[in-house]
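Hey,

Quick one before I head out. I ran the complex with copper (II) ion overnight. Inputs first:
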Amino acid sequence: MLMTKKILLVSAAIIAAIGVMAIAGVDWDQTLKVEESLPIHTVSITMSSSRPGCESTDTCYVPPQITLPSGGVVTWINDDSAFHTVTSGYYGKSDGLFDSGQLEPAQRFSYTFEDTGTFHYFCKLHPWMEGKAIVR
Ligand SMILES: [Cu+2]
């Protein structure tokens, strides 16, 4: 009799665990769908990067350095409330490879890196903003 109760309890626990896993599985699927809709290589232009200071904590473009395979696409998103640019080269020395032009808040810019190498970029409006892409 006691044994039967134990078996029933264990069975109930297993069924409950399967139920929880099934519910978690549904949530997991939804999470995956959201992630699939976001670009793989994304760089955020952070809030308040229009003010000097982000360079001291490497938080102007986040991540400040991104690594990707050749043929990969980097998408920059302007998460600030000010205008910014994503321009290849160094401040005052753009190399002409890419230039987003002025990005409004929430606007995105994408560039496909075909060649391998290290590619520096900056913001034309804020000299302290720098980042780089390493293409392998
Ligand atoms: Cu800027």
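The beta strands are 41-45, 61-62, 65-68, 72-78, 87-90, 93-99, 108-113, 117-122, 130-135.

Talk tomorrow,
K.
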